[in-house]
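Subject: methylmalonate-semialdehyde dehydrogenase (CoA acylating) structure
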Amino acid sequence: MTATVKLLIAGKFVESAASEWREVRNPATQEVLARVPMCPAAEIDQAVAAAKAAFPAWRATSIAERSRVFMRLQALIREHMEMLASTLTHEQGKTLADARGDVFRGLEVVEHACSVGSLQMGEFAENVAGGVDTYAIRQPLGVCAGITPFNFPAMIPLWMFPMACVTGNTFVLKPSEQDPMTPMILAELAQRAGLPPGVLNVVHGGAEAVNAICDHPDIKAISFVGSVGVGTHVYRRGSENGKRVQAMLGAKNHGVFLPDANKEQSLNALVGAAFGAAGQRCMAISVAVLVGQAREWTADIVAKAKTLKLNAGHEPGTDIGPLINGQALARVEQLIGQGVEEGAKLELDGRKPQVAGYPQGNFVGPTIFSGVKPAMHIYREEVFGPVLCLVEVDTLAEAIAFVNANPYGNGTALFTQSGAAARTFQHDIDVGQVGINVPIPVPVPFFSFTGSRASKLGDLGPYGKEVVRFYTQTKTVTARWFDDEAVAGAVNTTIALR
């Protein structure tokens, strides 16, 4: 009998009463791994009610004790790293090495959450006026929610609930219905770490669950990572209902390659960033801008891409696993076809590969286009597959202008050995996250994820200092204390403190 994915409500893993269920499939084999419920509104209400009931006691829990819970959680994640990675690979498709990286980058945020004592400190100014002190304190909002995508089923939930909960909030997580098993393991580990019942709750579902979260009056803030269409909907609907919303959306990331760059290192970085995780990363380099003589590198890029091994993610030596599902496969193949029709030169065609032992897998091999123009669909749209567009320009200034003309602003990278060029690039580029000889510049958790422009809605990004501001509200206190013997002065009807 196929296993069912449970809900976590008020500290208990419970079976959903949903009438609609979807299958969780291994994208390499199409094996049905589990059935996940599309939760009815009543179950989401129960999860929010549990979070609301748990909030007063959790808010009153000391910062030190909240921090200790996440110290225990990081230890449990390390202990169960291989189980998490294996589950992730089987339900999402990425290689085991990449799955370990998925878990590890989330683990870093859990470790950072343990520093909440310094992260959540307020401000104090003594004697701002005659005997008056002013101080600001950061307090939790209440019930918060997170909606996460399929491509990082460990890392992105770990971006959200640890930082929300360690700052004193309670949380309702809705992971992707396409790979919910990994998030449920994390939820179980969080319970084992000592997170009290109701502080973390997990529900499942599609559009109806998303709308229920956006509309629920007891949810104060929503964190979202995913597609532009869904994220824009969440931001608008949640904001209209008076919630704080941070939404990290799609991308079209460019790598700019100067001819003075270390060629071998640069090509390795490009091919890994373009085709790793089958291109299913919002930080993938999907456009390479070859500057000047670097345009001669096309054949070398193609040759290096051909060395990558396509296979099921759990197989040893695999470089690229399958896409998440058949719909994603069909969309990527359709966009490749459009690229050909619109006049781009198909340097390497990854469609319909033969993967021994996995004839039902959702595979697309590395695909490379040259001669790509901004009006083409393969450039305008986020393909979210192993498709790389090559663009040629004459100068760094042209490259910067080309990147800045794209509406997205998630990430970009420059490859060069020139400090002056790097300084110019990082100053003039209008993109939130910049790598210098670093292909995927996702910052460590001491800093915040800072995508910009069409890649982000909301002022504050995930993790780091920004997310502490997102999950807390500032309360400013102005206080004056009098000695018992003090002589009362005259009535003051002005606004001045004196």
